[in-house]
Structure formats: C-alpha cells, structure tokens
Amino acid sequence: MAAPPAVPGDPDVARARARARARARARARARRRRRIGRATLPPGAPGPAPDTPPPPDQRFEFVNTVLGAGSLVGGLMFYAGVMHSSAYFGYFHVRASVLGFGFPQMIIWSLRLVTLPVLVCLAVLAVGPRLPDLLVALRVPSRVALRVRRAGRAVARQYALFVASGVGLMLLWQHIQPYGWAAPLLVATGLVLSRSGAANPARPARGLWGRGLPVAAAGLFLVWAIALVAGQLGRQDARAAAAHLVRRSAVVVLSTERLSLTGPGLTTETLPGMHYRYRYTGLRLILERDRRYYVLPVGWRARTDPTFVIEDDDSILIEIMPGTQPREGDDEP
Predict the structure, then answer these.
(1) Which H or E run includes 218?
(2) In this model, does residue 178 exceed pLDDT 60?
C-alpha cells in the first residue's frame, strides 16, 4: 500500500526536510574541504598519514630556533661572567682581562647570577604568554582563564607606564642604588610589551621600524640590566671574601732573596743556613693562575693596601696550607 501524501504544514515533515538539508550541507562542506586539501598537494602526492613525521623544513626550523636561542643564552651568560669577574677581581686591584679566563670559566662565573629571584622571573617570562592555554589544559574553569587573559591584556596595554617608570628611575639614579638594574629592566619590559598583539590588537607592528627597532632597544636595555646585576654581585662576593680573608687558603712564601712584601698581618722570618733564607707568612690566596699566585695579607684593606702577585720560579717555593677554620657551630659565611 502506498504511503499517504504529505499534509502541508505537518511538523514531522518539516523537521525531516530540515534534517535532510543539514546533512546535505555537511556533505557539501566535507567535499569542499577534500577538494581544498587535494589542491594544496602537488600532483600525484599522497595525502598525509596520521603518524607522518614532520617534513624536513619544519625540523630544520626547529633546530635553527633551538640553536639561535642557545646562542643567545650562551652569549648573555658569557657577558654576565665577564662583568661578574671584572667586578670581583677589580675590588682586589686586578684586571680580569690579564688573567686569561676562557669561555668555560666565564660561563661558570655567570652561574652566580642563578638565584631564586632570577629563576622566578625567568619562569614568569616563559609561562606568562601561555598562561591562559596552560589553565585550559589544567581544566581550570573557563571564567578564570578568561579573567587571566583580560588581566594580561590590561597589563600589556600599560607598556607606556613601564617605559616612563624606567626613565623616571634613571633620573633618580643616585637615589635608587643598589637597585639601579630595575630602571633598564622596566624600559626593556615596556618596549617588549609595546610590540605584543595584546597591546596593539587593531594595528600589529610590522617592518624594521615597527617591530625590529624596539626589540633591539629592549635587548640593549636588558644587557645593561644584566651588567648592573652581575657587577653588583661581583662586588658583594669580593667584599665577603675580604671580610673573611683569614679563612681562605694560607700561603707561605720561601725565597732565596728578600722580597718587598709588607702589609698588616704579614710576618717575615730569616732562616740562616737554609737554601730558602726568607720565609713570609700571614698571606691568603685569592687566585692561582699560570703559576702566578695572587695573595693578600690577612689584614688587607681595599682602599690602601696592594695585592701581591708572586710568580713561582726556581728562587721561590710556595706552600699552600689551610686557612683558619671556623669553630663548630659557627654560622657565619
């Protein structure tokens, strides 16, 4: 028996026709996506497999990015090591450039800057731009992620305030020490935020003058901030070493000839009938480099006393001994 004809205005028929039209539109969109996908592939090329590895161009771009970031970090660490060692040995009236330190030694010196505040700042810089996505991955409620995104955009739009604050601190340079590094750091932060999409969503910066120049200027201010922090830490470490000089390795100098060694706490003895006739005690070792010993008397004063450089040769015998050890339970550094 044939089906009864459709009654005009029947709601079941209308819903069936709507579903049919929706299915037809879905099939049309799928065919259109397949045509676009085939058009982007070269003739005769197979479609991408589910587990296909990334093409060589993407791997090369990834390796190039990693090498570029590593070179930048290595360069900054080397520069920080140079500034730290220059400030440290400069306190003892010795130029670090004459000591002949190489790249590995400078990298080791730069690790002095790896402190908890620095690690926290680096973590914030690394996670900050991706914090909303991280919150979504952690299944944080969407309203919280939306608020965080809006707060980040609000902070980025205040880039001019960061720059103005940094410039203002520079004008008060003598009054903000030893926190002078905050001034160039604020300027660098403001310049970087000014080039972000959150600060300029309608007119993104392009070209050399729009994007490259502010980023380069921010890099220079960042280098300046690193130099200030490294120099400050170098001087602090040198003052701490001088304050506890007696705890450093003791140096005993035996010489066949009288040496012009004088200073507070230094003792000279004459040993008749011995090959090394003169014995000097009361010295502490700062550095040994290429058979040269940089030593200070135990009562050394930074403003008035010299640093002695003793070269080990046939006429001199150097003995290295433990310095004065702190008592058990002494918490001083």
Answers:
(1) helix 213-243
(2) yes
Q: How far is CA 69 from CA 33, 108, 124, 203, 274, in A?
A: 37, 19, 18, 28, 61
* Residue with the two structure tokens 């004008």: 171
Rg (CA), the chain: 35
Q: Which residue has the higher pLDDT, 183 or 4?
A: 183
Reduced to 3 states (helix: H, G, I; strand: E, B; else coil), residue 296 is: strand
Hey, how many other C-beta atoms are within 10 angstroms of the C-beta on 253? 23
| Whether residue 293 has pLDDT greater than 90 | yes
Contacts of 142 (CB under 8 A, 6+ apart): 136
Other C-beta atoms lying within 10 Å of the C-beta of residue 297: 23
Q: What are phi and psi of 25, to 5 degrees?
A: -65, -40
- The residues near 289 (Cβ < 8 Å, ≥ 6 apart) are 99, 100
Residue 217, by phi and psi: left (phi above 0), alpha (psi -120 to 50) or beta? alpha
CB atoms within 10 A of CB 261: 19
User: With the C-alpha atoms ordered 114, 118, 76, 179, is the resulting torsion angle positive or negative?
Assistant: negative
Token duo for residue 225: 């901030």
- Residue identified by tokens 């440290």 is 88
- Model pLDDT for residues 84-135, shown as the tens digit of each residue: 999 999 999 999 888 888 888 898 888 888 877 777 777 777 777 777 777 7
